[in-house]
Every structure is written in C-alpha cells, then in structure tokens.
Amino acid sequence: MTPSNPRIDLALPLRPHVFDRHAEPRQLQLTLATPLPPVCLVHGQAAVEPKEQVLRFWGKPGAYRQEGVGRLLWELPKSALGVFVIDRNEPLAIVKARWPECERCAARADARVKKLIVYYVGSLVPLCVGVALMFSRPSAFAMILCAAGVGLVLLAVMLGSVVFARTDRYLEAALAPDASSVTVCAHPDFARSWSGQEQR
Question: Are 121 and 90 in contact (CB under 8 A)?
C-alpha cells in the first residue's frame, strides 16, 4: 500500500447468524449481511477464492474491543478450567464470514504455516535429545534436559496462537456499538467495487 493509495475505513453491515448452537446465550453470533465483491480487501487484486475467517470482539455491550494477546493468553487457562471459570464481565461477539483473498494473501498464509511447523518442530529438539541421552547414557543432565524439553513443548503449544496471531486486515476491525456493522481497513479498489455493488 502506497501513501497515494491509502486504505479506506469501510463499514460492512452485519446480521445475526447462529453457527454454534452450544454457545452461551449472551454471545452475539454475526455474519455479513451481503456477499462481498470478488476483490481482495487488502491488495485490491482479483480474489482467488473466499476464505472463512472469524473476528472476535470482547468487552461490554456498546463498547466491544478486538481480541488481543492478553485475551488469547487468558483463554488458555479459561478453556482448561472449563466450568470452574465464569467470565461474567466479558460478553463476546463473533463475526464469522467468507472474505475474498488474492494470490498474495494465499502465499502469506502458506508462509505462516511453514513458520508454525518450524516453530513446533524446533520446540521438540531438546526433548528428543534428552530422551536419546536417557537411552544411551542415563544421567541427571539427561533427566533435566527431558524435563526442560517437556516444559518447552507445553509452552510452545500454549503460546503458539499468540506468537503467530494474525496481524492482517481481519484483526484491523472495529465492531459498531450496536453490533450492526463491522468497520475494516479496505483497499480503494475493494471500496469502489463494494460501492458499485451496493448501488445496483
């Protein structure tokens, strides 16, 4: 994106859409009210195919805020504790929709997956070395290395979603106080296609 071609804040209308019947009654489940044009929202290029993405917003009714690293970290112990944790002051709104993506977006997603694989495989190295040492020559060092390896693997699993949290357009969004629309940073070409589609 160049300075002469800045992004445009675009409000997309939403409608209720129940996709998880087991969700808490207070949880807002939303989707886009109208289909999006086949233009990449970030790069303005022709979309290859739409990709389903989920936007999560935390906060109180009328003051929703986007999901951040702090919330991701909190969700880990909350999910583990299950029914023992009641988060009464944090209503949740979820926007689930299909977003148009171009070849550049697809390539970036592939690169992210490869980095994630390297990240997790790397976390297994100390554990594998420790286990090999325990079989070949048991020692206190090998036991410590195994214990450290297990801890590193658990830490990698817990923090993986945070380390590789998406930083593209799907996190650059704002939910209206009445949850009637979601505002995204759009490429001008996408904004023009959207305006033309709305005028038809």
Answer: no
